[in-house]
Design brief:
Shape: flat
CATH superfamily of the largest domain: Tetrapyrrole methylase, C-terminal domain
Helix content: 25-40%
Structural class: alpha/beta
Keywords: Cobalamin biosynthesis, Lyase, Methyltransferase, Multifunctional enzyme, NAD, Oxidoreductase, Porphyrin biosynthesis, S-adenosyl-L-methionine, Transferase
Radius of gyration: 30 Å
Oligomer: single chain
Pfam families: CysG_dimeriser, NAD_binding_7, TP_methylase
Family: Belongs to the precorrin methyltransferase family.
CATH topology of the largest domain: Methyltransferase, Cobalt-precorrin-4 Transmethylase, Domain 2
Strand content: 15-25%
GO molecular function: NAD binding; precorrin-2 dehydrogenase activity; sirohydrochlorin ferrochelatase activity; uroporphyrin-III C-methyltransferase activity
Largest sheet: 5 strands, parallel
Organism: Candidatus Purcelliella pentastirinorum
Strand order of the largest sheet: 3-2-1-4-5
């Protein structure tokens, strides 16, 4: 280990910055953020530094450097393109045992700046010892997605309760167990949703009921299949899961992102095959939550779009189980997008209607609109396809209306067939489940707007290192 990572309190410490450009400005903002007294030596200040200077946050000593400016200085940063000046300042500062950093010159640095992930008071610093800054940037991007912004509030609240926890739990091991279970409880979920009233309620209940853990149900939309379309909050949720009840339509890519020690139960339904009835699924959710588990109900697409998510949460509400919902990208939007079919377009479609093909008979009578002005998206379209076709014709849809059948939208094996309404039965037979049916003029645009190809290697390989991690 070449460098020892340290966290230094620089409040009211004198810092000297030599240079007045954009690089110097970035360093100065860091020092100002921690309350340091910043002195600047520069021929001129860039626009950003002028703004900081005008707010009296920095002190502009002079335009030229002299060694006396190092007197009583705690730390120096040199950000100039004058190599001779940089060398001189490094030598003088080093002789005085002053920490010095010459930007982009590792040999002239007694300290270096790490990449910082700020969730104050939590700070995460990453460094490659100056050897691979691009890799550090990629790692930072990855960690930024894993660490929720709400960590700041979570830690601040926990800090306020430390003394109270000590009174409830005298033994260190008991306190340790409390905090371990507490940080993994629904408290964190409530804070992330800015529901501080319930968060404090959970915290106090957690203290009063020492041996009773609070479980929760999180209804999560897994998106249409491509794991890159999973939301950040959904990723954070499945990585803290104890139990995951998932549907068949959740892709393997998404399942691979779930916390490795979580228990996975497939409760998916297929036409004619319901091993888990809805009642059994509801009971499983309640049973695990009552045991203090974080139960993730993982559904393909969006849980509130033809996903029975509302029914399951009403069951949780009935039993007073805390819950939250994390939306997902529904396949009715994602699949046509990946197929190059915009659902609305000023010249083609003024609106879009989503319909469940399985229960199509119950909503067909409400479709008293001009098909030429709207786009119709039908989920689960293959079961009643003959009836759907007949009713569309009876309700005024022309036989030459453009249609698209999309199978496994957003997946590597995505398959798209386009044609006209009179060919619908043939198009369905040539495709495979799961399917989305798009009806409307906008289908014509696929010829020009198709962009997604089956081979996505160019997308995946650029993040090879991150994928390994």
């Amino acid at each position: 280990m070449k460098y020892l990572p340290l966290f230094i309190d620089l409040k009211f410490k004198p810092i000297l910055i030599v240079g007045g450009g954009s690089v110097a400005a970035r360093k100065i903002k860091l020092f100002c953020a921690v309350g340091a007294i910043v002195y600047v030596v520069a021929n001129k200040l860039c626009d950003d530094l002028k703004k900081i200077y005008n707010k009296n946050k920095i002190r502009w000593l002079s335009k030229k450097f002299n060694v006396n400016q190092l007197n009583n200085i705690f730390l120096v940063v040199v950000a100039t393109n004058n190599n001779n000046l940089n060398k001189k300042i490094y030598k003088e500062a080093n002789n005085r045992f002053i920490f010095v950093n010459v930007v982009d010159d590792l040999k002239k640095c007694s300290f270096i700046f790490p990449s910082i992930i700020d969730r104050s008071p939590l700070l995460v610093s990453i460094s490659s010892s100056g050897m691979a800054p691009m890799l550090v940037r990629l790692l930072k991007e990855k960690l930024e997605t894993i660490l929720p912004k709400s960590l700041s509030s979570i830690i601040n609240i926990a800090g306020k309760f430390r003394d109270k926890v000590k009174k409830y739990f005298i033994k260190f091991d008991d306190r340790k167990r409390f905090w371990e279970s507490f940080f993994d409880s629904i408290f964190s979920s409530y804070v992330s949703c800015n529901n501080f009233e319930l968060a404090y309620k959970v915290l106090n209940n957690h203290l009063k009921n020492k041996n009773k853990l609070s479980g929760e149900i999180v209804l999560v939309g897994a998106g249409p299949g491509d794991s890159g379309l999973l939301t950040l909050r959904a990723l954070q949720a499945i990585q803290r899961a104890d139990i995951v009840l998932y549907d068949y339509l959740v892709s393997k890519q998404v399942l691979n992102l779930i916390r490795k020690d979580a228990k996975l139960i497939c409760v998916g339904k297929r036409y004619g095959y319901h091993f888990y009835s809805q009642k059994k699924i509801n009971n499983l959710l309640i049973s695990y939550a009552k045991k203090g588990k974080c139960v993730i109900r993982l559904k393909g697409g969006d849980p509130f779009i033809f996903g029975r998510g509302g029914e399951e949460l009403l069951y949780a509400y009935k039993y007073k189980i805390p819950f939250q919902v994390i939306p997902g990208i529904t396949s009715g939007i994602a699949a046509p997008t990946y197929a190059g079919i915009p659902l609305t377009h000023r010249d083609y479609s003024h609106g879009v209607i989503f319909i469940n093909g399985y229960n199509y008979k119950h909503c067909i009578d409400s479709l008293k609109f001009k098909y030429s002005s709207f786009t119709l998206v039908i989920y689960m379209c293959s079961i009643n396809i003959e009836y759907i076709y007949k009713q569309l014709i009876l309700n005024g849809c022309l036989k030459n209306t453009k249609v698209a059948v999309i199978s496994s939208g957003t997946h590597d094996e995505q398959y798209v067939k386009t044609g006209i309404l009179s060919e619908l039965n043939i198009l369905i037979k040539k495709s495979f489940s799961p399917r989305i049916l798009i009806i409307g003029k906008v289908v014509e645009l696929r010829e020009k707007l198709s962009w997604f190809k089956i081979s996505k290697n160019s997308f995946n390989n650029k993040n090879y290192i991150l994928n390994l991690l």
